Amino acid sequence: MELLLFYSLRNLAARRGTTLLTAGGMALVVFVFAAVLMLAEGLERTLVDTGSPDNAIALRRSSETEVQSALDREQVAIVEGQPEAAFGMTGERLVARELVVLVVLPKQSGARTNVVVRGIGPASLALRPGVRVTAGRLHRPGTDEVVVGEAIARQYEGVAVGERMRFAGRDWTVTGIFDAGNTGFASEVWGDVDTLMQAFRRPVYSAVLMRLEDPAAFPQLKRRLEADPRLTLDLWREPAYYRSQSEMLATFLRVLGLSLTVIFSLGATVGATVTMYAAVAGRTGEIGTLRALGFGRAAVLLAFLSESLMLGLAGGAAGLGAAALLQWVRVSTTNFQTFSELAFRFVFTPGVAGQALAFALVMGLLGGLLPALRAARMPLVEALRGG
Amino acid sequence: MLLKILLRNAARHRLRTALTVAGTVVAILAFVLLQTVVDAWYAGVAASSAHRLVTRNAISLIFPLPIHYRDRIRQVEGVTTLSYGNWFGGYYQDPKNFFVNLAMEPASYLALYPEYQLSAEERAAFLQDRRGAIVGRKLSERFGWKVGDTVPLKGTVFPGDWPVTIRGVYRGRDRNTDETQLFFHWDYLNETLRATDPRRVDQVGIYVAGLARPEGAAAAAAAIDALFASSAAETLTESEQAFLLGFVAMSETILVATRVVALVVIATLLAVVGNTMAMSVRERLSEYAVLKTLGFGTGRIALSILGESVLITLVGGVLGLALAFPVTGRFAAVVGGLFPNFAVEPRTVLEALGTAVLVGLAAAVLPARQAVRVGIAEALGRVG
Are the Cβ atoms of A270 and B159 closer than 8 angstroms? Predict the structure, then answer.
């Protein structure tokens, strides 16, 4: 059997032009397939990383997003007083009242999109350990200073440290840029919650964020809060809440991307079939010789199948390699569910690589199956004569 | 005569030709679907009118405007009709069943949107019933609603249960009019809020102003914004088209990616057809040598190769287009909520055919060159 694998490999190398074109077509298909998977993966990672499992977030009942939620001061005070809340190092409760609104900001490209402005409290940074100010300094509470996330600093106009942004009829000074890793917070602008509430004339908060002393206590806290007649709110674990925010967009990307890829992968598979039929037709003499030498039909079948599988593998590896380069490309778009800007990236995982290579091999297999069967079924004498 | 030669040549390797045509069909189908997705995104923009302006809070769409702006906007020069209302954002049964539902001032809204056509009785019934609603034809078909049905809307922006009764089903006057929306009375929203959430009463999400002359749009927009500059709720007024384009711009990345994938599809097709043509020509090099010996010019030879290639891609292109219509119909059924108008545009048909021809030509360029250049003696000496 070893001989025939080398035979297949050598044959591919002998007809370089055809091999390149066929493998090239398959590489393009695998590139798109892998890119779609990486995009959906990157989106989900961003939103799942946004939020730590020890935190619980309270929103008004039946709100789908923080923007729609409105909690008044009495409700917030009740939530803050719950016994499950953890305490920080200096004895303060790790509970933060936050306001979330959308403002329209101009991007460097000229487009104007919705950006999340989040009013944070003193405990907010402690509740989000992944967030660090990397340039400038944090805003001072009670002032019209703000800090912007790294994705905002990169893409939007007039948000460098020291510049003044304008929204809600006032100017706001950017005092720093914060790094929030791959999370959704990187696409937000943060300021002091009380100042922002006044500026937007919103007398209600959007959410209450709490660190749980014991994460296992979440179900009992949820039961108590949702049964309380003074409150109309839902309690979520922070990661679960943010994951639900990505569902629609991730599903949309996956369904659209994958169904289109499958459709045009048929085209590349056809290319492989054409190539393999020509290969078989051109080598009838060799096939006859091999059979005469004693190689069985199965060996011939496997030889041609492995040739087309190698084509698929070559195309798949090339496509995957090109897709891996996308990791340095950043994507930013509006998440339909939250109606606000979200920056994420292409994430390359072993799972993506495995799926893409499997897809390439399936294309090679389907493309080469019929020609390989024809080669195997060829009657010996005719083959010898035909060559 | 030329066509006969092309057909005969193509038929020499029936399987190969059939497979290449199949590959073209698939690629053109994918291309048409992608272009249709991009077109669907712009569908609302295509249906917008130069006679309408949209006014919203300058901060962002989530902030309301006071109802008392109504009288002042009405007096702006050039404004003939004024309507107002809110994005309601409710759902029916399952939050995943997304559709556009708005709470608008009914008489003025229907006056501003003559493309939503209702019979006189349905219109009168709708205006009379404060809990009435009108739905687009496609939306009513999607959920099986009929006039007289009560739809139990569940609110998200305005939480709670909001039952409305369907008093009419509107049809779109133009091909690209959105028939997937639901409208009910703004007064129903406002009066209910007076009882349940008084803080949000008398607040409007957008004002829609109708203009006497579209040329006066810029002046009227500036005049409206000037009225409320430096007030508690500053406004931003733009033409309906600009307003809708703003939404499209939010998804600019996805649209760019879709266009890129369309190009990749074409590149794949080029590889496949190019491969086939290269193989065909290589097999027939000795024949081309014979033809040259007989005196056929290089032009004729090149033409026959190009022609064969274009024939294959054109047949594949036409079949792919024929298939694209039913497939688009199936897609539309799945994504109907997100894209109200998912249909193949005539421009896309032309683009697809043009692309098929161009790919056919491009794929045959190198093989044709090889056939034209081949030395007669060398080619005649070739085996197989």
Answer: no
